[in-house]
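Lab meeting, item 3. Inverse folding demo.
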């Protein structure tokens, strides 16, 4: 029997090679002037910025531009909104990685509000956002966070009292997501690797989530099916292949849909305290922890008895998928092992850095474990288990 479930909306999606060239025509139908949010320099290096400017000029679209370096902070959002609140911005367009899309999403949400974004951050502010925003178009240039399909924007303040918190509302889902795999061809291998492991983590965690349903299961399974044979090539021998990049872009997009509807697990429960205290890319956190998190979660599920058989079956089905085997119930344990071995192989092949590279020490683990959340992990992990998980990737 299909259990009751809910499913939130998704943006209007324009997916495919060459869709970026149609972006200006899409914007023209939405109005101008527009505010373009980009990264610091990657669009210029790829030549896509000049192409975008030319397209906007051809459509007589007036625009201003702001750039964000690294993960966006609440102060960046407040400063940007202060500059442009009274300029009649009709559309916010974000072209860049997940951090750029999050920045654009937050600016879009705050332009109509006479307040600071701090007021609406989960766990920090006390105000409730009314959902009013400036229309928002998301154009991802990396394949990782799936932010082009989610309703939240993650903002960071790094330091001893740092945090990673979201501003969230159902209406913050982008109005349009333009996903063109050609944009990721110039993405450096190490960035492609971290982003790809982030997308995989989101797909796996949403698939085994306690909030998963039949729609998210189907989408997550489909996303991993496309990712499994493209992740390593995208970062090594076939980074310039449009087909390879399209598979990764699809996996990333789908991961955004599934996380928004099924939630995530312990890896993302750790990403917030780690990312708030240390300057470490989100994709690296996910990529370096997903193998250890899967291993400890599966071990605990195996010790729980038949009550957690459904979660173990899901891990086994993904193990069969990524290794090209047929799923058979009698192979459940071995297929779970194959999944963990595959994740370890990906992590090593892609040389995903360990936590210590970013200044994290053994003395930091207790504080991280204390503030981590299990989210929708298929079985809750204790503080000691979370610490052991972190130690495995220190």
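The presenter then showed the designed sequence:
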């Amino acid at each position: 029997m299909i259990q009751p479930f809910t499913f939130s909306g998704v943006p209007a999606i324009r997916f495919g090679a060459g869709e970026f060239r149609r972006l200006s025509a899409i914007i023209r139908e939405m109005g101008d002037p527009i505010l373009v949010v980009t990264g610091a320099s990657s669009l210029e290096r790829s030549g896509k910025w000049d192409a975008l400017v030319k397209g906007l000029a051809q459509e007589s679209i007036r625009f201003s531009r702001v750039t964000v370096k690294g993960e966006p902070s609440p102060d960046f959002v407040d400063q940007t909104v202060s500059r442009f609140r009274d300029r009649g911005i009709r559309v916010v367009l974000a072209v860049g990685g997940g951090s750029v899309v999050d920045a654009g999403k937050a600016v879009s949400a705050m332009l109509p509000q006479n307040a600071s974004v701090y007021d609406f951050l989960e766990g920090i502010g006390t105000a409730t956002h009314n959902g009013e925003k400036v229309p928002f178009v998301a154009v991802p240039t990396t394949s990782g966070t799936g932010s082009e399909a989610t309703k939240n924007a993650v903002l960071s303040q790094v330091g001893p009292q740092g945090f990673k918190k979201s501003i969230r509302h159902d209406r913050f889902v982008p109005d349009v997501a333009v996903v063109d795999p050609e944009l990721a061809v110039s993405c450096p291998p190490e960035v492609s690797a971290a982003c790809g492991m982030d997308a995989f983590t989101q797909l796996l965690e949403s698939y085994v989530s306690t909030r998963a349903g039949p729609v998210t299961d189907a989408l997550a399974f489909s996303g991993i099916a496309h990712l499994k044979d493209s992740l390593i090539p995208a970062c090594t021998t076939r980074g310039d292949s449009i087909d390879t990049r399209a598979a990764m872009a699809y996996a990333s997009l789908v991961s955004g849909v599934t996380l928004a509807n099924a939630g995530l697990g312990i890896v993302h429960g750790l990403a917030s305290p780690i990312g708030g205290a240390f300057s470490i890319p989100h994709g690296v956190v996910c990529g370096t922890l997903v193998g250890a998190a899967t291993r400890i979660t599966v071990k605990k599920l195996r010790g729980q008895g038949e009550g957690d058989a459904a979660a173990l079956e899901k891990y086994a089905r993904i193990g069969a998928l990524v290794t090209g085997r047929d799923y058979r119930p009698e192979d459940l344990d071995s297929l779970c092992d194959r999944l963990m071995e595959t994740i370890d192989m990906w992590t090593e092949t892609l040389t995903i850095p360990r936590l210590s590279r970013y200044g994290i020490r053994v003395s930091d683990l207790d504080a991280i474990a204390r503030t981590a959340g299990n989210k929708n992990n298929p079985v809750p992990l204790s503080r000691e288990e979370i610490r052991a998980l972190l130690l495995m990737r220190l």
